[in-house]
Amino acid sequence: MSVTVITGANRGIGLELARQCIQRGDRVIAGCRNPDEAQELKDLTPVSLLPIDVGDEESVRSFSQAISEDITLLINNAGTSISNMGFKREEVGVLDAPVDLTLDMIRINGLSAATVTRSLAGRLGSGSQVVNVTSQIGSMVVGANFNDLPYATSKAVMNMVTVQLATQLKEKGVSVVAFHPGWVRTDMGGSTADISVEESAHGILSTLETFPHEDSGSFLRWDGSIHPW
Ligand SMILES: NC(=O)c1ccc[n+]([C@@H]2O[C@H](COP(=O)([O-])OP(=O)(O)OC[C@H]3O[C@@H](n4cnc5c(N)ncnc54)[C@H](OP(=O)(O)O)[C@@H]3O)[C@@H](O)[C@H]2O)c1
Predict the structure, then answer these.
(1) For 58-73, what is the mean pLDDT?
(2) What is the CATH number of domain 3-221?
(3) Which of 59, 141, 170, 179 has the fewest Cβ atoms nearer than 10 Å?
């Protein structure tokens, strides 16, 4: 049976990825900050819930120690935005953004892909896949015109983590891919965004089904097309 681990699985894209993975028969281990409050996730039976705050290394360690199965697919999905952290867009441009806010966001949105993956590396064998849910805003091309330094740099860090993990895990047979999930209707994307969580999650999961290991280290959109770095 395929074992899929997803972080930030209590709402948004992560919740829908969990739903679709359960539907196709995966055993899903879902990580979220507050399992007791994750009612929608709990309703998706069968699912195993574990607490994780991806910005806290001790929490990441406890999460990984609680997983004893070999993992088929690890999805580093958890992520935050400046509004979740109490800031407005006009406060976070490159000429204004507080350094501490920027570093906190890099830790949560970027470096967590490294800390979570490294803590689970012993459970990732040949043929397994790691997905980093990044953003087009982490690309140099798109990010140049998006004046939110904390979010853009955090996803640029995630992109670098992706290519470095791909190099380090290549010989082990583990593929690592960064996915821009689209502009998705979630709490983060807002109600006027382009696509539904269903479309985004379905696109990512179906792209992975035929993803060749030789292409590990790619930056893709949810529909499988290549995104420029
Ligand atoms: N929606 C879009 O248009 C869009 C576009 C590009 C990229 N993305 C990326 O897609 C991913 C999912 O976004 P979404 O749209 O589904 O956002 P969302 O609805 O705001 O959900 C974010 C999820 O991440 C979790 N999370 C936040 N900080 C966390 C932490 N420190 N530790 C553990 N979990 C944490 C949240 O948990 P809590 O409920 O505990 O806060 C929630 O489950 C994110 O990485 C985001 O950057 C989204």
Answers:
(1) 98
(2) 3.40.50.720
(3) 141
